Amino acid sequence: MSAEFRFIDRGYKKSLILIPGWAMDYRIFSGLELGYNYLLPLKTHPFTLAEELLAILDKKSIDRVGLFGWSMGGFQALDFALSHPARAEELILLSIRKQYDPAILEKIALKIKRNKKAFLYRFYLDCFYSCDNNGWAWFKDNLMRDYLNNFTSEELIYGLEYLAQVSISPGKLSLLPRVRIFHGEQDKISPREDMINIKSLFPEIDLVILKGAGHLPFFNPEFRRYF
Q1: CA gap 209, 196 in Å, rounded
Q2: How far is residue 92 CA from its own chain's centroid?
Q3: pLDDT for the residue 1
Q4: CA distance linking residue 135 with residue 146, whole number of Å
Q5: What sign has the CA pseudo-torsion 79, 215, 182, 100?
Q6: What is the CATH number of domain 4-100+159-226?
Q7: Number of other residues whose CB lies within 10 A of the CB of residue 32
Q8: DSSP codes joined into one string, 158-198
Q9: pTM exceeds 0.90
Q10: For the chain, where are the E strands, in sequence order?
Q11: Neighbour tally for 191: CB within 10 Å
């Protein structure tokens, strides 16, 4: 599968690539209204997004780009920023964790093989803050059926294999000029303690923990104000 991107010129000076998390795609960012042009990854490979992104930046003559990486996308954003620091305008990480336990990821792969839709439904539900009825309703009406039907077990497990091999540490973050991290206080997927620990080791990080937010902090009405 060849990588595909879509550039949306929204009339701003700076551009931002929106990198989604596991079992999601760029449409999860549909309600995001930030002051940037958007670069959306339509088809990418977890292990090679950094090089695919570099190629599209060169093709479109974009000198530098901001990186907005959510969940698994945060690791991919960090990969690019570390590999091509001169092309990274800023690094914004959301709902990430230091690393995932490979043994737990293997168990998830088995559950997907047994009943993909049942596991995904529970995963999507856990992504939402329990009181975010509007966000959950929008997701069910607009994305969930398509996600349940069209994400294959193979590509989901491929994403898990990527997650089993990546990690984030203050040592890596310290190589970058500025890092902003947003995290939901009620995140069931990525415990906030991970980010608090990293913040204690690397005080230069701008860490915002949003109350009333789960694994999708950008769904929170207060997100744009804090951003």
Answers
A1: 9
A2: 10
A3: 60
A4: 17
A5: negative
A6: 3.40.50.1820
A7: 17
A8: HHHHHHTT-B--HHHHTTSS-EEEEEETT-SSS-HHHHHHH
A9: yes
A10: 4-8, 15-19, 37-43, 65-70, 88-94, 179-184, 206-210
A11: 13
